[in-house]
Amino acid sequence: MRTRKLVSWALVAAAGAVAVAADHSVAVTTASDPYVVVQASSGAFNGSYSVPLSSITIINEPDMDIFFWQAPSAVPILDGSTVVATLVSMTVLSGRNTLPDGEVRYFIDIDYGVVAGNGGPGALPTTFNLFSPTLMFDTVLNATALTSATFGGSDQTSNGITLTPSGPGGFAYTSLYNGGTTYQSLFNGTLADPNGNSSVGTGGPANPVWNPIGPASSIQALFSFTVSAGDAAGGTSTFAVAPAPGAGVLLALGGILAGRRRR
Ligand SMILES: [Ca+2]
After folding, report:
1. Residue 224 reports pLDDT greater than 80
2. DSSP class of residue 228?
């Protein structure tokens, strides 16, 4: 108990940014800096909003590492003094959690809403890129992963709405691991409704399952899409990685007792 407390204090002292070298008795989880990046572009205007790691809530405990940021209010995304778009709301929760049975999970949860700029005289659409942090951790040798997400929008200008995916491969949502390998891409169809004050939306997959991905040491998620001028869009997602049952748990906990307790 005493040793674990000391290690935990060492993590806090390192501000959660630098891994404590070569002590594999405790899992070390870190998040990239900046923690969140939101980009918006419309016509000739490009804006970006970044959340530095120093401004988020970080909790390091033996059983968990939590990284949390929530937009305190609507945030304008600016190009100089021009408002390109608005980040209406956003919450990004990530980290390491230990379930009651001792299983360790790494996860990134995202929840956000945006409104496209009105586009000026040409009423141009706005393209958004929302990047989660990269969450880094001690390698899980036999990892499994799961993604679930929703994506949609609503017309705010009484002339219908169009949501066009614009991420890698033409998808609106992508979950990545190990620095760039795609785990899952979701939402590759344009969502549109020509009617005023209409809403469009989709979710997927309907029944997410854990799939084996081999060794994993980092995860990230991103949304990329284009919204018709002045309209709203939003989404939610969960991306989780856990050891395959009966395999990685021993490595994660560094002891065989936990394995014997598994039913
Ligand atoms: Ca519209």
Report:
1. yes
2. -
